[in-house]
Amino acid sequence: MGGQFENQQRAQARLLLIMPLLLVLMFVLLFAQFGNMRHPALILLAAPLGALGGLVVLHLRGMTLNVSSAVGFIALFGVGVMNGIIMVSNLTRLRIEENLPLKESVVRGASERFRPVLMTATGLTLVWLPAFYYLIERWHERKLREPEKAT
Question: Using an 8 Å Cβ cutoff, are 83 and 120 in contact?
């Protein structure tokens, strides 16, 4: 059991190093694409909001944050950033090409891109359902095998 614990500690330490580097790299790439600081910051704001939702779900299920769930969070960040790019690109297009004011471009752009954003999120959910089901089953089996704690 000590070997598994040590492996998990090493994996978590690597994730703690990789995640900030990944966010910085994503910011640099988004900055290169959009040419300003505001759009990448707005797009990357989706990552902590998605993480908050994921942590709430983990807490409600009584599960812990581990390497497996961290991989799911990385996928969640990717979809959040992709959806943010879709929205910001469309809003920028509406502001530049059609010369719309900000409020009108936000309302129109959100209504135009609602379906593509929803489909990418739904696609990720459907892809991860078998893995999520497997993890839930393992969690339930482990809970059933644990001896009752004395009160």
Answer: yes
Taking the C-alpha atoms of residue 144 and residue 25, their distance in angstroms, rounded to an integer, is 43
DSSP-derived secondary structure letter, 77: H
Q: Quick one: tokens of 125?
A: 């959910």
What digits encode the pLDDT tens for the residues 41-78? Answer: 999 987 788 888 888 888 887 777 777 777 778 788 88
State the pTM of this model: 0.71
Select from 3.40.50.720, 1.20.1640.10, 2.30.30.220, 3.40.47.10 the CATH code of 2-145: 1.20.1640.10
Please return the burial class of 74, using the count of CB atoms within 10 Å of its CB with bins 0-12, 13-18 and 19+: middle
Closest CA to 73 of 32, 28, 12: 12
- Residue 39 binned pLDDT confidence (cut-offs 50, 70, 90): very high
CB 15 within 8 A of CB 73: no
Could you state, in order of their start, the residue ranges of all structural domains in the chain? 2-145
